[in-house]
Structure prediction request, 302 residues.
Amino acid sequence: MAKKSLISIQDFTKEEILHILDVAEEFEHNKSQTFLSDKVVACIFFEPSTRTRLSFETAANRLGARVIGFSDAANTSIRKGESLKDTIKMVSNYVDLIVMRHPLEGSARYASEVASVPVINAGDGANQHPTQTLLDLYTIKQTQGRLDHININMVGDLKYGRTVHSLLQAMSHFSPEFEFTAPDELKLPQEYRDFMDSKGIPYKETADLREYLDSTDILYMTRIQQERFTDPVEYEKVKNVYSLNASMLSGVRPNMKILHPLPRLQEIAVDVDDTPHAWYFKQAENGMYVRMAIISYLLGKR
Ligand code: CP
Prediction:
């Protein structure tokens, strides 16, 4: 197989997406299959992460691969002024696959162009987070029994939330309906509205969290992305805009599940965790199976 990277969710066809979900389900039933024992994976993280980095490292380990990398670029030669290009060229001489998170939009695409091995985008600024999207899709299918004709209400930071941007593009294969719940300051950027218009995908917008709560299958909550704001005053204005608690769930559909890419702040109260609608911790667990499938696929093994 020619070198293939995963930078945007649009790099995968619908068939490839469904293949990844099928393989991930196999891994959920059989968590350790060490057929990548001759491979080395680099996890290089220029931005903080808990789930993405640890689930990628665990996924690689469960497949028998060895893992190198860093979680703080301050301890690398980037601190001495080395460029991203040189760093990627060096790392790609050492390993078979690179997983990279970086704050700059477009950095992952650039890395894939200079690397001699596949690159997986583990988040590039406010742009894309395609592996989160694949685990979101896996979780939607797991909870709803299908991907087609799902109603998804995306809530919170729709401007800077890269998981929102990747997920709505991926769902375009499956005839979704969307509601977008956000304050004016954090509404979905125009390019994503244009995308949905071009695909004929219906969507409604509101600033009121209660408005569409009772008519949704998936409530996709997101954190307000403090690190993307250039003006701290603007962040202060919106940081507590939504807070979902258990008492607000009395009229929701029985099948409704709450997803969140995590980490959460105050947008989901802890009393929601004990309701049958809370699925975000299982969603994070699913990330490991899905990332096993992605690594295997890009290394030509599944
Ligand atoms: N969902 C997600 O990307 O979490 P981390 O930032 O902890 O990796």
Residues 128 and 273 are 27 Å apart (CA to CA). The longest helix spans residues 280-298. The pocket of phosphoric acid mono(formamide)ester is lined by residues 49-52, 123, 132, 261-263 (CB under 6 Å). The domain at 130-284 is CATH 3.40.50.1370 (Rossmann fold).
